Amino acid sequence: MAEAIKVLLVDDHQVVRRGLRTFLEVQDDIEVVGEAADGADGVALTEELRPDVVLMDVKMPGMDGVEALRRLRDLGNPARVLIVTSFTERRTVVPALRAGAAGYVYKDVDPDALAGAIRSVHAGHILLQPEVADALLSQEESGSGQGRGGSLTERERQVLGLIADGRSNREIARALVLSEKTVKTHVSNILMKLDLADRTQAALWAVRHGVAG
């Protein structure tokens, strides 16, 4: 059996955390390794426990989810962060995605869909609702990376297309017959050349500019 996906819960409402834990603990391939009630504790525990996936609320007292995401990104923490929120406004969700979240779900999500979302982001995929993707795309249209696609090599364009398809580094390596280390290098070069912050922005850039996998 594959090793269980380690999950950390970060939400200021104890009832929410208890409900999430109760459901997730019956999943054979998911293990809840800890809980935090605010962003600061969430960052500290993510560094200490090294979970694979963090379920993060956006609105919390003290350090909120967006700032926590920025701290984790600055620390180079590899955990995939899935936003779990009751807020649907673009002004709430879009900053979290731009700060490095792998996607988001609503707190009333079907339990099986939540488990599927955790497995998906753990595998390297990006979960974007259509309305939020549209908002991000409209921002990217006048933002970073415009006109720089010509600086990419053919191999980098292939990697970028597969990122846009939601493929993980492992899946890209398998598809292109490369090592994961080589794929990581290509991804770093793509982000640098296009002046983008993360895979989410790279995927959106690829969609906006018609780069297919």
Low-confidence residue ranges: none
- Spatial arrangement of strands, main beta sheet: 2-1-3-4-5
Number of strands: 5
Strand content: 5-15%
Give the CA-based shape. globular
Helix-strand string: EHEHEHEHEHHHHHH
Helix content: 40-55%
N-C termini distance = 31 Å
Radius of gyration, rounded?
A: 17 Å
Quickly count the helices: 10
What structural class do the secondary elements suggest?
Answer: alpha/beta
What profile does the largest beta sheet have? Answer: 5 strands, parallel
Overall pLDDT score: 84
Structure report:
The chain has 213 residues and is of the alpha/beta class. It is built from ten helices and five strands; from the N terminus they run βαβαβαβαβαααααα. The chain has helices spanning 14-24, 39-49, 65-75, 90-98, 111-122, 130-141, 154-164, 169-176, 180-194, 199-208; strands at residues 5-10, 30-36, 53-56, 80-85, 103-106. Strands 2-1-3-4-5 form a five-stranded parallel beta sheet, sandwiched between helices. Helix 7 crosses helix 9 (180-194). The longest helix has 15 residues, at 180-194. The protein starts with a strand and ends in a 5-residue tail after the last helix. The model has no long low-confidence stretch (mean pLDDT 84).
